[in-house]
Protein 1
Amino acid sequence: MDALKVLIARRAPAEVVHKLSAHFVVDYHDGAEPLSPDDLRARLQGKVGVYVTGTERITAELLATCPELKVVCTMSVGYNHIDLDACTARGVLVTNTPDVLTESTADFGFALLMATARRMSEGERLLRDGGWKSWAWDFLAGAEVHGSTLGILGMGRIGQAIARRGRFGFGMKVIYHNRSRLAAEAEAELGARYVAKDELLRQADHLVLVLPYSAQSHHCIAAPELALMKPTATLVNVARGGIVDEEALAAALREHRIAAAGLDVFEGEPRVNPVLLTLPNVVLTPHIASATLPTRQAMAHLAADNLLAALTGGMPPTPLNPQVLSA
Ligand code: DGY
């Protein structure tokens, strides 16, 4: 039997490429930039499996042109770049990489919260630009982190890991809102209190967004939500850019209706809203919340292990639509 053909659509660790090459005929796109949609479609012809990252969009239209494709493995926990329903309808298995990035992403979320509250980027820019002339009692004075109220919107694995850091590392009061409320034992373990979304917005000193992006969560933080927040509050987004209406956020930051924001994700990334780039009270980072080498390697291996298992008759470790396997 001819070896199965797969596409690795983004640069991956060498061991991962070797691992897959030992089992499949691998077409490897090792360029620094993502394939264009046309090139992705062309390279997918005749492939039964594909390893992607968050930069490749797997749409219903694309699937219709790739009838041999059976497995899509993304090296990301988020999968809003994949039309999961269309994949399921066509019997295409989809996998993602949960768990292995939880702690490093939570570390980064908390670091971004601290950098935002304590005005670290602003201070560094000022220092590098020669603007540090003397000491003053209110020089770059920011918001308190320890003992303040941490609000978390989206209490999945990463939200819970951020809650632990806030509660047990910084003595914060933790409130959260989520589609479904956690079990009482989980709330007790985290020291977290469930509140309605409006109450979360009103009470949080630092609001962290960690919910998945979907049609339902699109712009779920927009002008009306920002209007409920304290003028001293900070907003941190390590989820997906589309959750926040960036125009409304930029206006709120410019008019000091909230104090500051820390953003790792953007609606049109890598393009960043030009107004945000001009504001001093925003910390901007280029979608790197999970970017430690060990974590990225673990994510790449998990994506490859999913592909390997799915195409060799095994059980993929982290399927998103396992019903496809039993169909
Ligand atoms: C994820 O895993 O979803 C991160 O955002 C990286 O894309």
Protein 2
Amino acid sequence: MLIAIDGPAGAGKSTVARAVADALGFTYLDSGAMYRCVALAELRGAADPLACEIELGAGEVTLDGEDVSDAIRTPEVTARASEVAARPEVRAHLVALQRSMLRDGDYVAEGRDIGTVVAPDAELKVFLTASPQERAQRRAAQTGADAAEVLAEQFARDERDTTREHSPLQPAPDALQVDTTGLSVDEVVSRIARLVQAVR
Ligand code: CDP
């Protein structure tokens, strides 16, 4: 079984997808971490960033065998990730990798295009949203950054992600939209757990 959770930055995808995967005993797939790895490889000057080996472990992300779980979360990598994600050759490469990972077993996969491109046949598609202000506040609380700066950076990234030519961020026609504004993580997780029960 596959549950796709897509949505913009700061909507709570990672926290919620991880918690839903734990609750169901499914494997969690963070597709954004893969775009971040390509961005990091490029920033480090790799000759061919797409030739680097990306592995998503239980709690860690490795790039050519090195644990880069923290290195891929810097603001510089975040900004570059949404740039590399607009390139069709990067998307084709990572989508193929994601599809092969999702072939066996039960998954909760999160990103921008899981329900639209990677796995349009997912049994459940959720599109998580929240107001831009709340999304920025959550990210600022997480990282200690200034909320106004996060809001500006988030706006630029949302703009790039939703207007790019290839796989723009948009809900799949059959995705169920969950607005998490004002909801706790537990409330969102139990809402999604109920949606899973309904399709199981
Ligand atoms: O955690 P956050 O939502 O801020 O970012 P992320 O999920 O780690 O994704 C980083 C960037 O990768 C996004 O801004 C997108 O441009 C890109 N991305 C994508 O294009 N497609 C995906 N399936 C996942 C991420």
